[in-house]
Amino acid sequence: MANFEGHALPGSLFLIVGLWWSVKYPLKHVHHKGKRSLGAHAYQRLETIEAAIRTVLPLIGILAEQFVPSGPHLHLYHGDHWVKLMNWQHSTMYLFFGVSGLIDLLSCLYTHIPRGLDKLVMAIATFVEGFLFYYHVQNRPPLDQHIHSMLLTALFAGSTTLFVEVFLQDNVVLELFRTSLLLLQGTWFWQIGFVLYPPSGGPGWDLQSHENVMFITMCFCWHYLAAMGIMATCYMLVYCFLSRSKLQHENIIGIQKLKLDHSYQEALLNGSDEE
Amino acid sequence: MANFEGHALPGSLFLIVGLWWSVKYPLKHVHHKGKRSLGAHAYQRLETIEAAIRTVLPLIGILAEQFVPSGPHLHLYHGDHWVKLMNWQHSTMYLFFGVSGLIDLLSCLYTHIPRGLDKLVMAIATFVEGFLFYYHVQNRPPLDQHIHSMLLTALFAGSTTLFVEVFLQDNVVLELFRTSLLLLQGTWFWQIGFVLYPPSGGPGWDLQSHENVMFITMCFCWHYLAAMGIMATCYMLVYCFLSRSKLQHENIIGIQKLKLDHSYQEALLNGSDEE
Amino acid sequence: MANFEGHALPGSLFLIVGLWWSVKYPLKHVHHKGKRSLGAHAYQRLETIEAAIRTVLPLIGILAEQFVPSGPHLHLYHGDHWVKLMNWQHSTMYLFFGVSGLIDLLSCLYTHIPRGLDKLVMAIATFVEGFLFYYHVQNRPPLDQHIHSMLLTALFAGSTTLFVEVFLQDNVVLELFRTSLLLLQGTWFWQIGFVLYPPSGGPGWDLQSHENVMFITMCFCWHYLAAMGIMATCYMLVYCFLSRSKLQHENIIGIQKLKLDHSYQEALLNGSDEE
Amino acid sequence: MANFEGHALPGSLFLIVGLWWSVKYPLKHVHHKGKRSLGAHAYQRLETIEAAIRTVLPLIGILAEQFVPSGPHLHLYHGDHWVKLMNWQHSTMYLFFGVSGLIDLLSCLYTHIPRGLDKLVMAIATFVEGFLFYYHVQNRPPLDQHIHSMLLTALFAGSTTLFVEVFLQDNVVLELFRTSLLLLQGTWFWQIGFVLYPPSGGPGWDLQSHENVMFITMCFCWHYLAAMGIMATCYMLVYCFLSRSKLQHENIIGIQKLKLDHSYQEALLNGSDEE
C-alpha cells in the first residue's frame, strides 16, 4: 500500500519479531554460558510458538494488502492490464515469510526435517524481499529510489548471514547480527513512511534533492546504531536479570542448605540425647 | 532456437533431471537417517546411470540446435559473417553440461579422480550458462532482457551452491536447494517460451511494458514457490513410502519370527512327545 | 573537512593504528610459534590500552569535524536546509569506529561478551565508512570520484576480512592482511589530500584528465606495495629482535646455570673439605 | 606494449607456469593417494626452483615493457604529462607477480613465515592484475573492451580461489581449478593478440561489431574447455606413467625377491649338501 500505513505495518511486524529475538538470543547465550540449560522442553515450546506466530503474522500482511479499499481483492488481471501489482508484490513478500515460518513450525514438530533447512528458507524469503524491491522502485524519483535501496543493504546482508547460519548453527554473533538487521529494517520502514507520506499532513520532502539523499544515507547508519543500542540494552538487561536470579537461586539453596544442616544437627543432637 | 520449442526442450531436460533429483536426494537422506543404508552397490549403479543420462541428454540438445532446418549445420563462419551465433551459443551451453555429465560418469567408474571435481565442473557448466546468457540478451526489448536475466539469479545461485558443495559434500540442505533451483530453471524456460513465442498463436506480450516487467519479476518468485512445493511433496511421499515399507518390513520379520517361534515350540512339543 | 587537514587527520589516525598493528601481530605470532607465550596478563593489558585509545581517537576526529571554524557546531538542520552534511557524514564514520573501539574495550573487561563480536562491529564500522563514501562522491569531477572510489576497494576488502575473522580468530594471515589494508588506507588519505588540496599551494591536478585517473589507479597499487613493504620490515625487525633477546636470554640462563654448577661444585668441594 | 608481442609475451609466461602446474599438481595428488610420498627433500627443492623462476620471469616482462624502443625507459613524468602509462601499468602487474614469487621463495627457505601467506600474496597479485585491467580499457572500442573484460572473469575467479586456498591448503580440486584458470589466461592473451593485432598483417577484426562480441564471448568458453582438456590429458598421462613405474618397481622388487628366494633355497640346499 503506497501510504503511511502500508509502511508502518511491515515496520511494526519486523520490529515485533526483532525485539523478541533481541531478548531470546541473549537469553539463550547467557544461559548456555552459565551451564544452566533452559529446560529443553520449555525452550522447544517457545520456539514452536514463535514459529506459529511468524506463520500467522504475514497472513495479516497479505490480508491487509489485498483487502484494503484500494487493494486488488485477489484480482490479478482485469481487462487488458494487471491489477495493483504493487499490492501483489507486497503480498508475495509476505507469503515467502509465511512459508519460512511454516518450515520453522514443521522443523519444531517433526525431527526428520533436515537441520538448517529453516534457515535456508528464511534466507530465501529475505532474498526474495530484496529481489522484488530491487526491481520495484525503478522509474521513481531519486529520493524514493534511494530510501528503498538502502533497505537492500540490510536485506542482502541478512540473507547472506542466514545462508552462513545454515552451516554454522547456534552461532550467537550471527544471531545477534541478524537480529540487529531485522530491527534496522523495522525502524527503516517507519522512516520511509515518515519521509514519503508524512502522517502530519505537512509538505513532503523534496524527492529530487541531492542533499536529502545524502542525509538519508547518513540517517540509515544512525538507525543501525540505534538498532545496535537496542540490542545491547536488551543483552545487558537479560544478563543482569539472569545474574540476579541466579544469585537469589543460590541464596535460597544456601538458606535451604543451612536449614537442612541445622535440622540435621538438631536431629543429631536429639539422636545423641535419645541414646 | 528462437522459438517455443527451443525453450521447451531445455526446460524439459532440466525438469527431468530436477524431478529425478527431488526423489533421489530425499531418498538418500531419509535412508541415511534411518540407519538403513541403501545397498552401496545399487546406489553406485544408480549414480552411474544418472551420469550417463546426463552425458547423453545434452547431446540431444546440441543435435537439435545444429540440425533443425534453421540451424547452422556445424557451419561457424561463412562468407563474411558468423553463422547463427545464437544456436552456437546454445550448443556451447549444452556442451558444458555434457562435459559435466562425463566427469560425473568418470568419477563413478574410476576412484582416483579427486573427490569434489564433479561438483566443480557442474558449477563451471552452470556458470558458463549464466555467463553466455548475460551477454546473450543485449540489444533486445526490455521484457525479453528481463525475463532472461531472471534466469541469471537461479544460475549464479546454483553455481555458488555447487562451488560450496565441492567442500561440503553430501549436505542435504545444499542438495535440496540446488534441486529447487534446477526445477525453477526448468519451469522458467517454459515460461519464457510462453511469453515470447505464445504457442497458441495469439498476440505476444507487449515487450516494452513496464507493467509486464513487474509482473514477470513476481511470477519468477511464484515459480520458485512452486519448485519448493514440488520438492516438499516429493520429500513427503518418499518419507511416507519408506516409513510404510519399513513398517511392513518389520511386520514381515515379526510374523516370520512368530512363525519361527511357533514351529520351534511345536518342535519342542514334538520332541518332548518323542521322548 | 574539504581541505588538506581534513584528509591528513584520518590518514594519520589510521597510520598510527596500522603501524601499531604491524608490530603487534608479528609479535603475537612469533611469540606463539616459539612456544614462549607472552605473559597473558601483560598482553591482556596491552589489548585493553589499545581498545581505549581506539575509542578516544575517533572522538578527536568528531570534535575536529564539528568544531573547526567551517564546521556545523552540532547543528544539523537550519532554516530550510541541512548544515554541512559532509562534516556530519565524516563524524558518523568516526562515531562507528568509536563504537567499535568501545566494544573492544568491553570485550577486554568483561568475559561474557560473545567472542568475535568485536570483529563483527569493526567489520560493520569499516563497511559503514565504505557505504557512506560510496554515496559521498556523486556529482564530483572524475578524478575526485575515482581517487575516493579506490578507497572502497580497501574498505570492502577489510570489511570482508573482518567478517571472516569473526569465525577464524587469531589467524595470523588474516591479521596481517587487515593490517596492510589499514596502512594502505592511511597513506591513501594523505595521497587524496596531496592531489585534491596541494598543501604547497601550487596548481591542483586536472580533475577531468583520463591520464590522471589512470596514473592514480596505478599509484594505488604502489601504495599497497609500500604497505606490504612496511609490514614485512616490521615483521623482520620483530623476528630479529625476539631471536636475539631469546639468544641472550638463553645465554644468561646458561651463564647462571654455569655459575650455579660452579658454586655447587665448590660447595661440594668445600663440603668434602669440611668432611 | 600495444602490439602482438606485448600480448604473446605474458600469454607465454602464463602458459609455461600453467603447463608446469598441470603436471605438478596431478603428480602431487596421485603420489599422495598411492601413499608413496615423493621424497620430501626433492619436492621441497622443486618448489624452491619454481618459486625462483616465478620471481625471475616477471622481471623479463618488466624489462621488456620498459626498454622496448617504444617503452618509457623508466621515465614516469615528462614535461607536462605521464609517459607511456600503459607500459607502466603492465610493469606494475608484472611487479606484483614478482613479489608473489619472492614470498613463495622466502616461504620455501624460511619456516617462520606464516603458512598461507604465499597464497594470499598470489591472490593479491591476481586481484591487482584484474583491478588494473578493469580501469585499463575504458574509452576503447566495444570489442577491445569486451575481449579484455573476459579476462577479468578468469582473474577474479582465480583470486577468489587463491583466497580460499589460504585456509584450505593442499586441496587438489582448488589447485586444479586454479591451474585451469591460468592456462585459460595464457591462451586468451594469445587470442587477444591475434584479434587486435593480427600478426599475418591482414585486416583487423571489426571492433564495433556486435556479432564479433558475441563470438568472442563464446570463444572464451571454448578456450576454457581447451584448458580443461589440456589438464585432463596431463592428469591421465601422469597417472598412467606413475602406475606403470609403480608396476615396474613392483616387478623389479618381485624378481629380486624371487632371485633372493632362489639363492636362499640354493644356499639351503648347498648347506644341506655340505652337512
Q: What percent of residues of chain A adopt helix (DSSP H or I)?
A: over 70%
Uncertain segments of chain A are none
C-alpha end-to-end distance of chain A: 87 Å
By DSSP, the count of extended strands of chain A is 2
Q: How many alpha or pi helices of chain A?
A: 7
On the 0-100 scale, what is the average pLDDT of chain A? 88
Order of SSEs of chain A: HHEEHHHHH
Shape, principal axes of CA atoms of chain A: elongated
Class computed from helices, strands and strand pairing of chain A: mainly alpha
- The proportion of residues in beta strands of chain A is under 5%
Q: What Rg of chain A, in angstroms, do the CA atoms define?
A: 25 Å
Largest sheet of chain A: 2 strands, antiparallel
Largest Cβ-defined interface: A-B, 26 and 25 residues
For the largest sheet of chain A, list the strands in their spatial order. Answer: 1-2
Number of domains of chain A: 1
- Please state the oligomeric state of the protein chains shown: homotetramer
Descriptive labels:
homotetramer; about 280 residues; mainly alpha; two-stranded antiparallel sheet; 7 helices
